[in-house]
Amino acid sequence: MKEKGMDVLVSQMEFSGHHFETNLSSRELEILAPGFANMKTYYQKGRAVHSSIDKAIHMYYGVGGHGNFALAEPYRFEGKFEFTELM
Q1: Is 70 a residue whose pLDDT tops 80?
Q2: Which residues contact 74 (CB under 8 A, 6 or more apart)?
Q3: Which of 20, 26, 71, 83 is most buried, judging by how many CB atoms fall within 10 Å of its CB?
């Protein structure tokens, strides 16, 4: 659901795509978003990097935090809350 929400932030993703392309090296961009150089639009570029950022954050709070899930999201930074299902 969050991914779908991020998909509609078109102008933000376009801005981010341009920002990342301007401020990071091509090597860094390929690490963050494989295939970055072949992406046609700033939207695609921004979305790909943001997706990598989000995945890294979710991994940190999931498997990186020794939790019971591979991916997790912090809830108000008050500690771990583990749910059997996200709605």
Answers
A1: yes
A2: 61
A3: 20
How do residues 40-57 score in pLDDT, each as one tens digit? 999 999 999 999 999 998
Over range 73-84, report the average pLDDT. 68
Q: Which two tokens stand for residue 71?
A: 């991916």
CA distance 13 to 19: 10
Whether residue 48 contacts residue 20, with contact meaning beta carbons closer than 8 Å, is answered with no
DSSP structural state of residue 37:
G
Sign for the CA dihedral angle at 51, 49, 28, 34 comes to positive
Spatial neighbors of 19 by CB under 8 A, at least 6 apart, are: 46
